[in-house]
């Protein structure tokens, strides 16, 4: 026969164990996200979220991702649940995830809300600063129970960005037009994470004052701004074709000095630790622009 005091002690022990297994973080929508235990089945609703989860040490817990989730290579093997713009809710539910990682500005809000209505736990992410990338790695690692890997990845990212900031803190400014898309012609404003990369390298975004994170601009506006350097991503990791049309405008300073630079889009256009490599490449390009004065 179990004594009442022993039963009480056992009950308290079980409650303490359950409480210690519960994990909670605050997401970028300022909501508390809690799980009764670290997630074992995770679905990522953007290529960036997929990459962040792998970097946070949670790759083996991913069971689904959206199209274009191609890094690291293991991500290509994950079952697809639609695109980030059009989610396949049935496919997501069929995977029975205990955590869904959504993209605030990219995913359809009504579909993400529907997933919550159906009982799924959703973490909403929107890294807008380098510090947000590192913080997101740590938060996702908490939710996946992979803190050691996530904390290490966050520390490497912070240290790398810090080193670049120190190196280029006193660099001569270089005016920059960053082309994020060709048709329609689009750039980034000063609030965009790519603008932080430009500033880190001692660059000045000529369209920093525009409204919207990725505003449309006209060719005439670029010509009027006359940037010293034009930097573009492109339709592929080794396809600098978007730079070619600018050669039709020889009066542009960037064209005159051959300051037309390509950076693989996955290294600057996804809010992940790959931005460290993309920012390094960007800084090297702007150093070339300084040397060509």
Automatic annotation (TrEMBL):
Keyword DNA-binding (UniProt): no
Domain Fe/B12 periplasmic-binding per the UniProt entry, residue ranges: 41-290
Signal sequence region: 1-21
Classification via CDD domains: BtuF (cd01144)
Pfam families, per database record: Peripla_BP_2
Keywords: Signal
Stated name of the protein: Cobalamin-binding protein
The organism of origin for this protein: Alloalcanivorax gelatiniphagus
Record lineage: Bacteria, Pseudomonadati, Pseudomonadota, Gammaproteobacteria, Oceanospirillales
């Amino acid at each position: 026969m179990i004594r009442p005091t022993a039963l009480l002690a056992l009950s308290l022990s079980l409650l303490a164990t359950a409480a210690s297994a519960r994990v909670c973080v605050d997401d970028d929508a300022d909501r508390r996200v809690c799980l009764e235990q670290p997630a074992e089945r995770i679905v990522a609703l953007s290529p960036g979220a997929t990459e962040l989860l792998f970097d946070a040490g949670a790759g083996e817990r991913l069971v689904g991702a959206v199209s274009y989730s191609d890094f690291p290579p293991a991500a290509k093997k994950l079952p697809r649940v639609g695109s980030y713009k059009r989610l396949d809710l049935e496919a997501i539910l069929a995977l029975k995830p205990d955590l869904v990682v959504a993209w605030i500005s990219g995913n359809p809000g009504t579909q993400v809300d529907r997933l919550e209505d159906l009982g799924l736990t959703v973490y909403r992410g929107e890294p807008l600063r380098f510090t947000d990338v590192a913080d997101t790695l740590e938060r996702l690692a908490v939710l996946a129970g992979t803190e050691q890997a996530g904390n290490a990845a966050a520390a490497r990212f912070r240290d790398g960005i810090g080193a670049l900031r120190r190196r280029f803190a006193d660099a001569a400014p270089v005016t920059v037009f960053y082309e994020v898309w060709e048709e329609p012609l689009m750039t980034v404003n000063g609030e965009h994470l790519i603008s932080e990369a430009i500033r880190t390298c001692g660059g000045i975004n000529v369209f920093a004052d525009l409204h919207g994170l990725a505003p449309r601009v006209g060719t005439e506006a670029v010509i009027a701004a006359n940037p010293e350097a034009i930097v573009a991503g492109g339709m592929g990791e080794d396809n600098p074709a978007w730079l070619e049309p600018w050669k039709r405008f020889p009066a542009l300073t960037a064209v005159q000095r051959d300051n037309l630079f390509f950076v693989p889009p996955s290294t600057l256009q996804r809010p992940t630790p790959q931005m460290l490599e993309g920012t390094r490449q960007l800084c090297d390009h702007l150093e070339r622009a300084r040397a060509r004065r």
